[in-house]
Design goal:
Helices cover about 85% and strands about 0% of the residues. It is mainly α. A two-stranded antiparallel ribbon has the order 1-2. Helix 5 runs antiparallel to helix 10 and helix 7 packs parallel to helix 9. The longest helix is centred in the last third of the chain and has 55 residues. The two termini are about 45 Å apart.
Length: about 270
Amino acid sequence: MKRFDYLTPVGFVLGSIIIVIGIISGSGLSGFRSFLDLTSFFIVTGGLCAAIFVSFPPKDLKKTPSVLKQAFIRKEDNVKDLVKTFVSLSDQARKQGLLSLDEQARVIKDPFLKKGLLLTIDGWDEETIRLVMDSEIAAMEERHRKGRRVLEKAGEFAPAWGMIGTLVGLVLMLKNLNDPGMLGPNMAVALLTTLYGSLLANMVFNPIAAKLEEKTESEIFTKQVMIEGIIGIQSGKNPRNLESQLVVFSSREEWRKLQNSQVNSKKDSVHEA
């Protein structure tokens, strides 16, 4: 089930409020205007857009709005409900055979789970099913990585263009040392471009990219649970045994512990050999 992720806008609003309060507490409302400069803003945003346009093809840039939208959507995957589903399917498969699951598989909305069940019904072996499903996960992870790449690069470019704006402001200031009236505006450009670039990187682009990466990890975890459930049905595992196995995955922390233990056991077996 997809829901609105209110924490994303709350984070933006909270960060903005803290910055505004910090400015006002130090200089009052009149001093707030000193932090608004169109020249600095255009240098950072214009340079950032130019760098992004050079770095990515149009097809990737067109996907950016839909990628950004995902930061405001929260998908709830209840592993406990997923375990109950697999226990029910496993019980039916043991009593009526794998072919009896065809009707349920056709109406399942999740394409990943649906594909895995159909492979099982078609009689594919465990190794092939796992290989196909793992390939699906790898392809999904790569798609998500490419979607985040624009935001991650924007997070890198924004501070750099802030520094470029600072250099522009310093050059203008040094060229007009004989004109005291120009020192203030040029110094403002020099400092505010760095501020704007850092704010865009650390309050917008990098946090959104981090949230999208976390959502990808959560989706991978859920799909790994699905693979174990599908393999359990394919191998004809007892529903209660399958439930006991999948309950371990009710938290991602338990899943990570299991993965680490499997990696360590493989290393130990290699050393023994």
